[in-house]
Amino acid sequence: MPKKLSKKKLAELKRREEEERLRLEEEEKNRIELERERIALAEQDRVTLLKEARLAALERQRIKEEDDKFTPEWQPKLSLAYESRFLELAERKDWHEFLQCSELPDPENESEINSYLTLWRDQQSSTSAQDADDDIPQRNIEQDFKDCNVAIELYHQIEAAMFRAMDRDEERRVHIHKENLGKIAQSTLDTLDDMTAYIMQFSDLYIDQNTDQYANKTSTIDYGLWVNIAKNARKKYVQFDDIDAVCELALKGMALQKIAIRILHMKNCDPLTITAQQRPLMIPIGGIVYMDILHIPPPPSGHKGWTIRKLTSLSKRVKRKPYEQTDAQGNVVDPPSTRVSFVVPSQVLIRKEVPSVAWWDLDKKTWSQEGIDSEKTKYDPESRKITFYTTHLTTALAVVNERVFDVPYRSWFIRPLPRYGRNAAVYTIKPCAHPTEVAYIEDIVIFIFNDQCKMLSPLRPELEHITSKWLEPRVLLQRLAESGINLVVGDEDAQFTDRLPKHSDVEQKAYREMSWLGNVCSFASSKWNQDLQVGQDKVVFRVSQKLFEPSNAIIEDLPPAGGVTFKGLSEEGYFQEPQHLENWENVAYWNFKASFISCKDSSESSLSLETLPNHDTHLNLALCLDERRKDAEVLRRIEEEDLLVCETIRILLSATRPLSWC
């Protein structure tokens, strides 16, 4: 029989049982309450989802109705207006070119280009055939250089045509133009090669007997050729005084070999990078330097007043000699570094204390710095001479910049210039700033007029060849890149920045619709555009509600290159920082809609993409502004726009991609 519990223990047991009962009751009560809350939240979520779905359906319906109305009504009208202005301007350009009486082929006509190249080759072949039997060479070396200069002029015209095809998304034409660029560049190099073989064959007539050199300097080409006639064992380097270049003879016994060294600097032509299958990570600035070691033909000999020249395969064609050496067993080993120096053209803005040098890797089709000792590279800003050590000769060399050196941008804005009528605007970018940069750039300011652009800032002597001219938008950007400022960066370059590029559909939609209004209101960067909440599928930028009132005139003739100045426009307030202007609102873009959002750049709180109170999302920015102003003025102004300048604005925005890189 179990022992009877004491009163104290019985009381304790009852207390515990009561506590357990109360605990279970509390748990049940909490469970019921939580379930009630869960059901309420679920119902609330269901109602919210239904409401959002209903609103989304209404939004889709509203945007579809806007699309059904806007697109058929406005797209043909805009396209027709643009084509009309484009053809009108094209006729004026054709007439201007006709008056110039240019002998160059039409860069858009592949047949004319092929005929030009064939005629050029035939002329050289006939000249060489004639020369082979003549006592005195008839080849006109100066004419060869002139022909090459003309070919480089044609190269730039084809390049401009390629850019126009890119802007029209004509991939086939872009491919054809790239092929033609390669043909022109190769024909130019072939001409210079054949000319070099000719000079070496007739070295007694062309080579300076004191220096063993021939040199020539034109506006586009620096040419230096040293033929080792003297075979001076103590010669350590070759110095080309006429073109201010040096090449060390680093290989043992090199000064005694039957070789020639040629330096060919094509100062404003880069057929390697522009025709590469993939965009290299580095951009040449100041052109390409071809450094070649060449075999030389047997020298002429004299006999009884006759000059005897032995004809070999080297008489008409150059043969390159690899820069390499072998060990005692005959194995090819790495050659010693050789010192090379040349002058960087005056049309290049050097932005690093010591610029980088690279060589063209023919197998990988890219620029490489392997084998170039960057620690020994030196640059003298006064003489503009760069000196470096490399294990790569008989190749193309170049001073290079990183493609992403100028991104991310610090800010950007674009605004109309009403004093110049309805076909002018100004675009400003603040490029990335580097602490070690020796040529700091505050602003890049581009004046837009019709289909042409003129850079107003920075005003530096190195960029005078750009700031003194009106250029097509992508041509201007290409000349800038060649001079040390690159604003054309692709998605593949994003891995070297702290930015994620925007999706193409939403980005290009925004640029297209900004361009429609580019002569009506101003646009500027927003600090929220790179927020994680915005991501890659949305963009945010600022728009000013203030509409500019231009004159009614469309001015056809370009203002004189010196008639539009940074100082003049700056004094009129055209370069004020956007935050000091009135009526700025943030606009958010999705791939199918746009809306004003309540969050401003002055706000210190986190980003909100909520639509501005009492406003809706719309098909495009024009309709957003139309709702905001409630006066139909925006649509009226679009109808009166000069769409030629609108297209130029779109091209500039699409090329520089401020919404991805700022």
Describe what you observe in this structure.
The protein has 662 residues and is of the alpha+beta class. It folds into four domains: 39-100; 102-132 and 139-201; 207-301 and 313-325 and 336-402, Chondroitinase Ac, Chain A, domain 3, CATH 2.60.220; 411-661, no CATH class. Helix content is 38%, strand content 19%. The protein has helices at residues 7-100, 110-131, 141-167, 171-201, 203-206, 271-274, 464-467, 473-483, 504-516, 566-571, 621-629, 633-640, 643-656, 658-661; strands spanning 213-217, 221-227, 237-240, 245-248, 259-266, 282-295, 301-303, 306-308, 325-326, 332-333, 338-343, 356-361, 366-368, 378-380, 385-390, 395-402, 411-416, 424-430, 444-449, 452-457, 523-525, 539-544, 584-589, 594-597. It has an eight-stranded antiparallel beta sheet. Helix 2 runs parallel beside helix 4 and helix 11 (621-629) packs across helix 12 (633-640). The longest helix is centred in the first third of the chain and has 94 residues, at 7-100. The chain is extended. Mean pLDDT is 86; it is low at 129-136. It comes from Percolomonas cosmopolitus. Belongs to the DNAI7 family. GO terms for molecular function: beta-tubulin binding; microtubule binding.
